[in-house]
Amino acid sequence: xxxxxxxxxxxxxxxxxxxxxxxxxxxxxxxxxxxxxxxxxxxxxxxxxxxxxxxxxxxxxxxxxxxxxxxxxxxxxxxxxxxxxxxxxxxxxxxxxxxxxxxxxxxxxxxxxxxxxxxxxxxxxxxxxxxxxxxxxxxxxxxxxxxxxxxxxxxxxxxxxxxxxxxxxxxxxxxxxxxxxxxxxxxxxxxxxxxxxxxxxxxxxxxxxxxxxxxxxxxxxxxxxxxxxxxxxxxxxxxxxxxxxxxxxxxxxxxxxxxxxxxxxxxxxxxxxxxxxxxxxxxxxxxxxxxxxxxxxxxxxxxxxxxxxxxxxxxxxxxxxxxxxxxxxxxxxxxxxxxxxxxxxxxxxxxxxxxxxxxxxxxxxxxxxxxxxxxxxx
Length: 378
Prior knowledge:
Blueprint: H1 6-45, E1 48-49, E2 62-63, H2 66-84, H3 89-112, H4 116-134, H5 140-145, H6 154-178, H7 185-207, H8 214-235, H9 244-261, H10 268-277, H11 279-294, H12 307-313, H13 318-338, H14 344-364
Antiparallel strand pairs: 1-2
């Protein structure tokens, strides 16, 4: 078992921050100064989120285009790292282009309201291209099946892994998009998740420094930490700007790619740990879809049945609900990090237990009951 004393953990983090912390700072500075510019452009071009008292209950029109500032900060950080660090350019460039492509699709949806089928199809093509070009996630299926001693030949495992990887990344994009429902919620939650990914990547870097994927993991994680922290002052309640799909989809793409990158070592507990760090968006998406399904409605129908919506409906302010979600994200992330030194069997058992306890708590609190159908105000 690797050394996990506090002094050693602090050394891992310091080592990783010395190598990649500057790029997080670049992302933060570009985003924090780029966001008010994006807000001014949104006002001048009319790209505003108009309240409707149903899915958009904010009091006044709020500028969109915050996602473009996040994307710019993330992009500049990655470009700076490629210029001044020894990184695998052949892997990083497709990820960078894929992230920009996903953000553009989200931006077009913000401006033109694309159909869900178009968003899904274009997103799937972009993600598939990134995975095939970089080889990201090629070991996903064998990583998952390794605990039971099953290894498939590459001709079978790689296509299955790509298909599963596309599902994972699209699912992450959808989850971050859905959790972007309160001021500062998606921004802060994703910042905490990305920090968890950075700490997990730092652990892996210390545990096996010869493995080649660490620089990409560390860079992608710290770039989003910086970009989201830079955006949060403008987005926290009361929000001055929203990120829109241009931001939420990019954040989900980055998280999804990182989860696949943790599968490259072929050890399932890294994948399980990453999923646990990302647990709150998964839980929120699953809860909303379950309530819609149990109420006889389409699981893709928009409503106010998300976990954070129910917190507000039960009397919490927007700030209080967001802070509760931050706390839960920290809790799930801590569990995901603390189980890493354990054997795979125990990691899986703990995570299954957390899932069961989470579901039981949601049921006991009455959060799983379907709500009456709602209609937007005329």
